[in-house]
Amino acid sequence: MVPLEGTAAAAIAERLAKVQASMDQATLEAHRPLGSVKLLAVSKFHPVESVLAACEAGQRLFGENRVQEAATKFPLVKERWPEVRLHIIGALQTNKARQAAALADVLESLDRPALASALEKASDSLGRLPILYVQVNTGAEPQKAGIALEEADRFIDDCKKRFGNHVQGLMAIPPQGQDPAMHFRLLTELATHHDLPVRSMGMSGDYGAAIRAGSTEVRVGTAIFGPRPLQL
Ligand SMILES: *Cc1c(COP(=O)(O)O)cnc(C)c1O
């Protein structure tokens, strides 16, 4: 493996610092304590060398969409940087539940009873269960992952019964082309109602708005790693 050229690594470090600075600004504007919002660096489609460059710059939390891709990158990353934590943030097929349960530190896309059952089974046999967030489809988009808003209360209760305090938060991706603030506020309210401390919301284009609406974790890809290379 060839490390990134110095200029490419420096660009990642610089963009990380910039994102962190504007997160801090939004946090202060929202009268929230500095450090109350975590930055998840979304490295999907970017090579492992870019992840390692971000680690060099001090980043420790990473998000990947696909279990398969994460499995090719993160064992190596964690060997070098044992404090790294991997979040799986993409829609998860039930037949990938076992691999996800084995690999992820946090799974953010728990969104249906069949997946909950598959994870329960996998964790029984693996003796390991990631921290879980329930993904909520706040925009009721048919093509998008996430539990429907009308079913969210029941599903969250069911997940807490199955997984106890492994269930720590909620995640949402607002519909494109709409003001995301309403969706962010809705997710914060739902998390508060269920006494869940984590609200994973906000991406490169809207993390400031998400922080002002109560996000505790933003998932930022493009603003850190640059445009994604074409999907493999
Ligand atoms: C890709 C992705 C992100 C990051 O998106 P950017 O716009 O590149 O910051 C965040 N969350 C999820 C679920 C994603 O799939």
What would you note in describing this structure?
- The chain is α/β, with parallel strands linked by helices.
- The chain has one domain (about 5-225): Alanine racemase (TIM Barrel), CATH 3.20.20.
- About 45% of the residues lie in helices and about 15% in strands.
- It is built from nine helices and nine strands.
- Strands 1, 2, 3, 4, 5, 6, 7, 8 and 9 form a nine-stranded parallel β-sheet that branches.
- The chain starts with 5 loop residues before the first helix and ends in a 7-residue tail after the last helix.
- Pyridoxal-5'-phosphate (PLP) binds near residues 89, 204 and 220.
- This is Pyridoxal phosphate homeostasis protein.
